[in-house]
Specification:
Elements lengths: L4 H33 L3 H20 L5 H17 L1
Helix pairs in contact: 1-2, 2-3
């Protein structure tokens, strides 16, 4: 257990940040799945912009690696273009 006041606060703040990161990551994954299941080109292209924005936000907050984000965006863009 933490001994210092600052360490105790760090434990509390890390818990909140971890929950927030998990929520954002999970909601992004759900949006990606929804995009992959979409068969309508117009709906998929509008959803692609939304998902790309979500992925970029995860990268800026260091939740996922920038190369993983680039791979995801590339694959999703190819899928939408092939519709």
């Amino acid at each position: 257990m933490a001994n210092h006041k600052s360490a105790i606060k760090r434990v509390r703040s890390n818990k909140g940040k971890t929950e927030r990161n998990k929520y954002q990551h999970k909601s992004t994954r759900s949006a990606i799945e929804k995009l992959r299941e979409t068969t309508d080109k117009k709906e998929a292209s509008s959803l692609l912009l939304y998902v790309t924005s979500m992925i970029d936000k995860l990268v800026n907050k260091n939740i996922i690696h920038k190369n993983k984000a680039a791979n995801l965006k590339s694959k999703l863009t190819r899928k939408v273009n092939s519709l």
